[in-house]
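re: ur question from yesterday

yeah so i grabbed the chain u mentioned. its 200 aa long if i counted rite. heres the sequnce exactly as i have it in my notes:
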Amino acid sequence: MILSHVWGLLSHPEDEWKAIRKENCTIGRCYCSHVLLLAAIPPLAGYIGTTQVGWQVAAREVHKLTPESALSIAILSYLTILVAVFTIGKLIHWMGQTYGAKQTLPQCIALAAYTATPLFLIGVMLLYPVLWLNLLIGLPVLAYSVYLLYTGVPIVMGITKERGFLFSSAVLAVGLVTLVAVLAVTVILWDIGVGPVSTG
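ran it thru and got these structure tokens back, copy pasting raw so excuse formatting
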């Protein structure tokens, strides 16, 4: 069922992780029922926010992006999210052997995808791109995603909580490295001219 686990992850995560573990999820099913839809929220909201609302820097004039520039950024962002979820899932599968976990690759990708659910949902804040407001709301949501990770790893991977804590910490480190890599590629692309173009 499409988006069947979203409410459960927000209201009773431990029970929902157990339900996710019991599912015979394939990569295609996980992507089609969850990732493809939710991963579109931040790029779509960002496109609308940067072209229709704009943002201010130090109370100066409002800056907006051209529709063409915002569209290319939104598409690249969407593809980056899809690749990042798969990559982190693949790394979870690879690291699982170290911690005695023997879950399948689809289960590991599901773990990565469902852990990111709050981050996908908070992407709606990009409709109104005010940095301080987005940070104020985004940081607790990021903390909840980390909580989901630490709760979900031992359940989904079928390992003890002690090993799960170490495993989750390793996954969190991988996630941060992935984020830094994405930011580095973004800077390089902007430097060679593939970046935001303001109106006016």
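noticed a couple things. Residues 6-191 form one domain. also The CA atoms of residues 53 and 128 lie 7 Å apart.
anyway ttyl
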